[in-house]
From TrEMBL:
It is found in: Plastid, Chloroplast. InterPro entries: Ribosomal_uS14 (IPR001209), Ribosomal_uS14_bac/plastid (IPR023036), Ribosomal_uS14_CS (IPR018271). Its main location: plastid. Belongs to the universal ribosomal protein uS14 family. One of its GO terms (biological process) is translation. This is Small ribosomal subunit protein uS14c.
Length: 100
C-alpha cells in the first residue's frame, strides 16, 4: 500500500493540471504562428508562469486499489500482482489466465 501523502500529492497534481490546462494550451499554439524570436521568448515566459506541478508530464498513473505507482496496466488501472489475483479469482470478465 502506498503512503497516503504520496497519493494525496498525486491527486493535487491532477487538480492543478485540470485547472491550468487551457492556460498552457493557448500559448503553445501561438508559438508556432509567431515569426520573431523575441516574441517567442515572451510567449515562452508566459508558459513558465503556471506552477510546475500543473504540467501534464508530472502526472503518474497509480493502481486503483493499492496506489502502487509502477507496473500499472492502463486498460485496467491495476498493478500487475493485483491484476493477476483478480484474474485468478474470476473478478475481471473477459480476462484469461495464461498457462503454459
Amino acid at each position: 500500500m502506498a503512503r497516503k501523502g504520496l497519493i494525496h500529492r498525486e491527486k493535487k497534481r491532477q487538480k492543478l493540471e485540470q485547472k491550468y490546462h487551457l492556460i498552457r494550451r493557448s500559448p503553445k499554439k501561438e508559438i508556432g504562428k509567431v515569426p520573431l524570436l523575441s516574441e517567442k521568448w515572451e510567449i515562452h515566459g508566459k508558459l513558465q508562469s503556471p506552477p510546475r506541478n500543473s504540467a501534464p508530464t508530472r502526472l503518474h498513473r497509480r493502481c486503483f486499489s493499492t496506489g502502487r505507482p509502477r507496473a500499472t496496466y492502463r486498460d485496467f488501472g491495476l498493478s500487475g500482482h493485483i491484476l493477476r489475483e483478480m484474474v485468478h479469482a474470476c473478478l475481471l470478465p473477459g480476462a484469461t489466465r495464461s498457462s503454459w
